[in-house]
Amino acid sequence: MVEDGIQLDKHGYMVKSILRDQISQAQEQTNLDQGTRHSSIQKMTLNILIILANEKFLVPFKTIMETTTTKSRYANQLDIVNPLFEQVKIVII
Amino acid sequence: MCLAQMGIKDITVIDFDDVENHNLASQLYKESDIGQSKVLALQENVKAFTGIEITAIPQKFTPVMVADADIVIIGVDNMSTRKEVVESLTTKTKRYIDGRMQGQAFELHMFVPVYENQLYMNTWYSDEEASPEVCTNKAVSYNTFAIASIISRLVVGIIKNDPFIMNKTNLQVDLANLLIQ
Fold this sequence. Notes:
The complex is a heterodimer. By secondary structure, chain A is mainly alpha-helical. Chain A has helices at residues 10-29, 34-54, 58-70; strands at residues 2-3, 6-7, 89-92. Chain A starts with a strand and ends with a strand. Chain B is of the alpha/beta class. Chain B has helices spanning 2-5, 38-50, 79-88, 117-123, 133-136, 141-159, 163-166; strands at 10-14, 55-57, 71-74, 95-102, 105-111, 170-174, 179-180. In chain B, β4 (95-102) and β5 form a beta hairpin. The chains are: A mainly alpha, B alpha/beta. β3 (89-92) of chain A pairs parallel with β1 (10-14) of chain B, so a sheet runs across the interface.
């Protein structure tokens, strides 16, 4: 099926539904004004859909979802950032 | 700074030096930082830029400081401390990255603690053998930013357990001639 101009398979459609819920929650939590929030979430969604369309995403999906719903700041780095970033301890000498 | 901008929060920086005037030419310090502890000034600047509060230890290195580190990045200005850091690491640490800069060039060495220390020692030389240029030919700004960028890329690869990165051990970059090998 095609949604927002992007061809999605059955799994992609299911993921998108989950993402929609997650993004909705993130939307409620953010302090951004309405216009900025809308634009930010649209961009985030588009990034996610592009990744879903281009990747076999079963494994990275959870990573992407956790990252984007909590950190829209990093929405333009979806293929790089990772929730593990918050757990790793780095020492620089 | 680059690591914090990516959302890495548990960062500890260790250095007992203070910010000097010449540091402003190649490092992320402000004029008002001159005279302050380097790591405390960095802590403040990272907080201002990213909101992330890193841990600053304005002291000389001791092994206990790296005891629970997942990744250790070595950027000290002498070879003996590099060796001391490497020898103090345990298998708790996934990788250590040793960055060595000189003028417009730098090299990186990345190994697994304990198991690959002998390989690391093949890259090591004493302070007496070090080129005197190391002290006089300071890194320029773009060299500092380049090494920071590549180290950050290595860190991302280590965190994600990316085989392409995990199999890297040495990297030489000559920005004067734009050579990477």
